[in-house]
């Protein structure tokens, strides 16, 4: 039996499920509309049973686990619950989930995906990448605008979120904190405190590379954009050109070493190819691989289904 943990609307998991059905493999998928309705753990008899939408499963029966995204949800409580009590319930559920993950691992289930490392610190990632010999853009963290004077302002710089991108609603309008180029002249001679912000030298790219690694395999595509936009995510697919790409042995080796250091079993890597070299930007531990698989014609979904 295979256990899949993902978001309800995750199309990549949908594709993996399609391959599992084709291969006639037995699996259950946990997400927003498939949740645990009952728990029965007997530590004395070593019996650990969960019910998913009222169907019982023994944790011992799960031989493979694939974590794509999301979390395990519970449908055990009924009625309206006070916020403080709900907070307590959620902490209890979190402990139950943590134990289940631990039990599956120690019981010998094959764990695929980042079940135990769902987030990374972008600054830690940059530090590790640099220590492993991957080039990164000149990077600064500033909390006072006057400190911009300590940077070579003749260069172009960008800023982006230090943490993960979060949607923000202000007066019913949606704002997303994409990467933006800085107009350094606008901030000159200003003396005020700001939230500690990341400032990076803008790398003029020939093309960008998105690579997805899973276990000991890696796939990559090159993206060509001719719009000059700083954040390639804001550009429509029809305005970009994609090609499958083979990373060098050296870069592949450094990526896998970084993954081991960060305790990542899979992830999506973003690189920039400039006129002179490759520059590492960041890693996404959730591993968005649909774009890589589709435009590279790699059928990564089938590869993962085969492993499960």
From TrEMBL:
This is ATP-grasp fold RimK-type domain-containing protein. Residues 207-306 form the ATP-grasp fold RimK-type domain. It holds the Pfam family RimK. InterPro entries: ATP-grasp_RimK-type (IPR013651). Coiled coil: none annotated.
């Amino acid at each position: 039996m295979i256990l899949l943990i993902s978001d309800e609307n995750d199309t990549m998991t949908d594709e993996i499920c399609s391959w599992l059905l084709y291969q006639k493999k037995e699996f259950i998928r946990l997400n927003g509309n498939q949740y645990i309705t009952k728990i029965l753990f007997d530590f004395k008899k070593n019996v650990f049973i969960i019910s998913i939408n009222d169907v019982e499963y023994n944790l011992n029966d799960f031989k493979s686990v694939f974590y794509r995204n999301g979390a395990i949800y519970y449908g055990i409580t009924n009625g309206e619950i006070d916020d403080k009590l709900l907070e307590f319930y959620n902490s209890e559920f979190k402990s139950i989930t943590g134990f289940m993950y631990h039990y599956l691992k120690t019981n010998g289930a094959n764990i695929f995906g980042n079940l135990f490392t769902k987030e990374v610190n972008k600054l830690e990632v940059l530090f590790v990448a640099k220590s492993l010999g991957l080039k990164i853009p000149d990077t600064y963290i500033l909390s006072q605008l006057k400190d911009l004077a300590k940077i070579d302002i003749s260069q172009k710089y960008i800023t982006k979120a230090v943490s993960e991108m979060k949607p923000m609603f202000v007066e019913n309008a949606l704002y997303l904190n994409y990467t933006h180029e800085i107009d350094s002249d606008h901030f000159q001679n200003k003396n005020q405190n700001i939230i500690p912000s990341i400032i990076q030298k803008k790398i003029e790219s020939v093309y960008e590379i998105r690579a997805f690694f899973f276990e000991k395999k890696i796939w990559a595509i090159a993206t060509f954009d001719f719009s000059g936009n700083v954040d390639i995510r804001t550009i429509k697919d029809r305005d970009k050109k994609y090609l499958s790409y083979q990373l060098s042995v050296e870069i592949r080796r450094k990526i896998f070493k970084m993954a081991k250091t960060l305790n990542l079993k899979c992830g999506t890597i973003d690189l920039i190819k400039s006129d002179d070299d490759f520059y590492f930007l960041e890693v996404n531990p959730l591993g968005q691989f649909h774009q890589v698989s589709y435009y590279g014609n790699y059928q990564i979904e089938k590869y993962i289904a085969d492993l499960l």
